[in-house]
Design a protein that fits this description.
Blueprint (H helix, E strand, L loop, with lengths): L27 H22 L9 H26 L7 H18 L2 H25 L4 H23 L3 H5 L15 E2 L4 H10 L5 H10 L4 E2 H19 L1 H11 L1 H6 L4 H27 L10 H11 L4 H20 L2 H24 L3 H20 L5 H19 L20
Length: about 425
């Protein structure tokens, strides 16, 4: 009779005094200090730039930021669900397109809340197709995603001609490329507080008026879908990081073989994640439709791809994703509302931020990154000092340029799920 010896793992070696303990999480006081420093910096830029920068912290600018950021954030949140389960979802753009079309159709034919349902279901249908192709048949995720984008654009263009260009739809303003208008969704304003903040904002006091503008933008005429998006972000964090379901889903994106050995139905979790991903992207697409009150061909304008980039910038976490989406939404709103003047002031703000980043990188001995950041800061400062405005072409491209610049310089030490995008077949670990 033989006995199996059970080996006790040796105790972990003590960490050397100078060894790094890994990446530290920012505490709440530190985050509050960063936010306060950011407000002081933006307020200082507003004062330095004078009348050209009065809109950088206005309530209208913040409201516009939310409008631009929410669809990108929802698309990125969809990408987060899929990639945490190990499926790369390049098809977010196509799922957003499906959401714009089906949501606008139902919103016009019935009511906006039915448009929400139809937009989500349209995106989920796209997610289901993507899951079947990638999870069941093992097609390369990038190829499948690109095909989804092409398919969605073609299907919606064909259906728009068949639905919106005939009968009642045509008499109410429908065209081969546009749906008839739908009703607006309900908005919310905090009574009393919104008026008081608007009064403070008009005084243009240093920091105080800037805080009033920021807070006023989030308590005045807030869309129901914006509130729903906030709830979905909180729910995503809770579900994926605070429940056993989320732990099993994330294990499918880290090590599906190990997850299967513990009894996890990897295929099922991947399907759920990609279908939820499509539904969130579809909701983001409908947000675009309801914002303009109709579906318009080409309405997404690459926001699915930007959402994916924001998710990567956020290190596959909801909080970082929200920051990336907010960055694009802010610059997009700035160029739409104020044009060349505020974008010119943005050059100074970016130069200061890049200078601070260069100092931080230098102190961390990342000399190459510090050099690049310092070089960009010098160029932007020189551009600001030697000009009074920027060309209109630069204004239109500013959301994309600013987003790419900050993401390229700040996206360090990213860690994607280990099995993200890798093919998986049931039983392959046996």
């Amino acid at each position: 009779m033989s006995a199996t010896a059970v080996q006790t793992p040796p105790p972990a070696a003590p960490r050397a005094p100078g060894a790094k303990a890994g990446r530290r999480k920012l505490s709440v006081p530190v985050l509050l200090l960063i936010v306060a420093a950011g407000l002081v910096l933006v307020s200082a830029v507003r004062v330095i730039a004078g009348d050209n920068a009065t809109d950088v912290t206005s309530s209208g600018q913040i409201a516009g930021t939310l409008t631009g950021a929410v669809p990108i954030a929802l698309a990125g949140l969809g990408g987060l669900w899929a990639e945490r389960a190990g499926v790369v979802n390049i098809g977010l753009e196509g799922m957003m397109i499906l959401g714009t079309f089906f949501g606008a159709w139902a919103g016009w034919a019935m009511n906006p809340w039915m448009g929400v349902v139809a937009g989500v279901l349209g995106g989920m249908a796209g997610g289901l197709v993507h899951a079947i192709v990638t999870v069941t048949f093992g097609v390369d995720h990038i190829i499948a995603g690109v095909a989804m984008n092409i398919l969605a654009a073609g299907v919606t263009a064909y259906m728009a001609k068949r639905i919106f260009n005939v009968g009642k739809a045509a008499t109410e303003g429908g065209t081969p490329k546009q749906s008839p208008p739908m009703e607006d969704m309900k908005t919310f304003t905090v009574p009393g507080l919104a008026h008081w903040l608007a009064t403070l904002e008009k005084h243009h006091w240093f920091v105080v008026s800037d805080i009033a503008g920021v807070l006023g933008g989030v308590v005045t005429r807030i869309s129901s879908l914006t509130l729903l998006a906030v709830v979905l972000f909180v729910a995503t964090f809770f579900v994926l990081w605070r429940t056993s379901f989320g732990l099993r889903l994330r294990s499918c994106g880290e090590n599906p073989v190990a997850a299967e050995s513990l009894g996890v139905n990897v295929y099922l979790y991947k399907y759920i994640a990609v279908i939820v991903s499509g539904g969130l992207a579809g909701l983001g697409g409908f947000f675009l439709s309801v914002g303009t009150h109709f579906y318009l061909e080409g309405q997404t304008s690459g926001r699915g791809y930007i959402g994916l980039a924001a998710m990567i910038f956020g290190n596959w976490r909801p909080g970082g994703l929200a920051m990336g989406a907010g960055l694009f939404g802010y610059t997009d709103s700035l160029q739409l509302r104020s044009g060349t003047d505020s974008v010119h002031a943005l050059l100074l703000l970016l130069a200061i931020l890049l200078l601070a980043m260069a100092v931080w990188k230098y102190l961390r001995k990342a000399y190459i990154s510090a050099g690049f950041a310092l070089g960009f800061a010098a160029l932007l400062a020189l551009w600001y000092l030697t000009t009074d405005s920027v060309p209109s072409e630069v204004v239109q491209a500013s959301p994309y340029v600013a987003t790419l610049l900050v993401m390229g310089l700040f996206s360090q030490r990213l860690r994607m799920p280990k099995a993200d995008g890798q093919p998986y077949r049931k039983g392959q670990g046996g």
